[in-house]
Amino acid sequence: MWVFYNGKILDLENVTISPFDRAFQFGDGVYEVIRYYPEKFFEYDSHLDRLKSSLKKLEISFTAFVNIESILYELIRKNNLDDQLSIAYIQISRGVQFPRRHYFDDGMEPTVFMYVEKFPARQEEMKSGVKAGLEEDIRWMRCDIKTTSLLPNVLSKQRAVKNGVTEIIWHRNGFITEGTQTNVCFIKNNELITPPLSNFILPGITRGIVLRLCKKLGITTTERDIKLSELNGFDEILLLSTTAEVIPVIEADGKIINNRIPGPVCRLLQGEYQKLYNAESR
Amino acid sequence: MWVFYNGKILDLENVTISPFDRAFQFGDGVYEVIRYYPEKFFEYDSHLDRLKSSLKKLEISFTAFVNIESILYELIRKNNLDDQLSIAYIQISRGVQFPRRHYFDDGMEPTVFMYVEKFPARQEEMKSGVKAGLEEDIRWMRCDIKTTSLLPNVLSKQRAVKNGVTEIIWHRNGFITEGTQTNVCFIKNNELITPPLSNFILPGITRGIVLRLCKKLGITTTERDIKLSELNGFDEILLLSTTAEVIPVIEADGKIINNRIPGPVCRLLQGEYQKLYNAESR
What we know:
- Chain A folds into 2 domains: 117 residues, 2-Layer Sandwich (D-amino Acid Aminotransferase, Chain A, domain 1); 159 residues, D-amino Acid Aminotransferase, Chain A, domain 2 (Alpha-Beta Barrel).
- In chain A, 28% of the residues lie in helices and 29% in strands.
- Chain A is built from 7 helices and 15 strands.
- The first copy, chain A, starts with a strand and ends with a helix.
């Protein structure tokens, strides 16, 4: 498997991360996951913008953005994934610092690690829908930054898997925030309702696309705080992410949504989303 | 520099962490820092107990605890630190998982990394005291676990350094929690007051020692919620940690404490703490 590490394309076996890398010791890094629909990275610029934003918020001084896209295409080619539905993973950490201490020097050399991987569509989940659980959102208060300090996401997702559900929808102070790996939106009387951008949710790329698609399709969109107690009153619940695209929730916290049948807005958005990446790829 | 990595004592240069180590990609690990006062690790059992507790809370299935102490002494010896004030760093992450995904398999092989390092006493800070800033505590709600997902601690500490203060004291919902690397306690009329153990603070080893010392010395100890607004009414403010031992705060949020003179309880506790590790070491 060919990967990119600090300026070079290498076999994965030859990547040697230092134990003093601040991602390893502090979770001090950011990342992005980008979909490759043959033969194009989808919404590349949006992901790059968010990567830049995450780096800026953490004061990680990486600047070689101009090279990333061509490296990712080279990784696709070298790994023979040209015609495969895939993902790219980009991680940039603050770099190696020795001796270990919490605060960091200005102008550190960031550690850059990127790989691509065959990653099939989540077709069955998109078609039939998934179950979701509910949990209190106990993360820190800068969930707008896509960092590698992901332990709360890991632990909630683990409980999801153990409990036989696909995703956990979080709530904080009585209001819905997002899922462990997805943004969440709700449909009621042909209106799409989703929590507003804030420090409590990730500005999802798919979330942005879906909001734009709704405007094009004449579906009213409302970004507002959503009370946990409203959860039972929606016609549809949708999970959004780069790899999930648009996945319907058919059971939330044990309560059945629309007789377990993915709704019409879900189907419409799934189709339009697909048209979009088909138009932008080959 | 000789370090320990996954069963072997190696030169640091030969340690090669996988980019798929979950500490690197998810901050999915725990750690401890233990003081070596020649020629003994101080409160080793307390640190080991906390390490076990952290691992259990994250469901990391590490069991080879019995070997750690002898490995640390071997590292001290091989690095010629026998007579040097030093620290040991122990990090255990969940291990390497490929392909990347949030949830984890049962029974993964943890990644173990340990090193020792000469680490002088913070004598000047202990003697003259330090300035502390105040910030809202925006961390997640499981601060009782000593994890490597340390980004909020890193960012607050960085602001401390930029602002010329040594530590940030955090407050959440109007109540004092702790510092970015220390527990905090307060003295008022010969009473030591400190926030109670909860999911919002780390159960500090030094905190525990100081509470026991107070009982021995006849100083009343009270573990209770402390309002931010109480901050100006204390006689002394103390920072506690393994490397800080007992450090007096002489200025908090720009307000001068006791004319910048470390107080009598601080001096008493510093002396008793020193007696304790002197008695337990050589």
